[in-house]
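Re: Re: ligand-bound prediction request (bumping)

Still looking for help on this. To restate: I need the protein modeled with protoporphyrin IX containing FE bound, output as structure tokens. Inputs repeated here so nobody has to scroll up.
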Amino acid sequence: MENFLLQAHSGWRWIVLLLIVVTLIKALIGWLGKQKWSSLDSRLLLFSRIAVYIQVVLGVILYVLFQGWANMRFTGEHVSVAFLAVGGVEFGAARARKASEDAAMFKFTVIGFAIALILIFLVIAAAT
Ligand code: HEM
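Reply:
Sorry for the wait, this slipped through. Here it is.
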């Protein structure tokens, strides 16, 4: 069970990274190219959020069942930073939804997802 969850949590990171990178690049192109916000952009935000939450749920189950508070360094470097990364994704998605102009929607997506991507690299570095 532990091994299965660990494999799932470990492998799912690639889906998370792919979605965040694609969303970020698409938003950057949209922002710099003054494009219109499309339903694909909204869908990419939604799929990224779902992927990140699946990653977190798998992580929380692993943590609660098999790791716990025993390793405070791991908790500080992996878990806390992961929640900050979720904050980056949520910030980008929420501010993009509220913005009234296309350029602002792309801008907030780029800012939030760039922060999240940097933090996720730190999260992964702390886990391996
Ligand atoms: C964006 C978020 C996250 C990413 C990308 C991520 C990625 C990873 C990776 C790559 C590993 C190493 C797996 C391996 O050894 O093959 C790992 C391990 C682990 N992660 Fe995460 N993780 C994230 C969030 C979380 C969260 C929020 C928690 C807990 C609340 C968590 C708990 C764990 C635990 C308990 C392990 C196993 C550590 C061990 O056995 O030494 N992760 N994670």
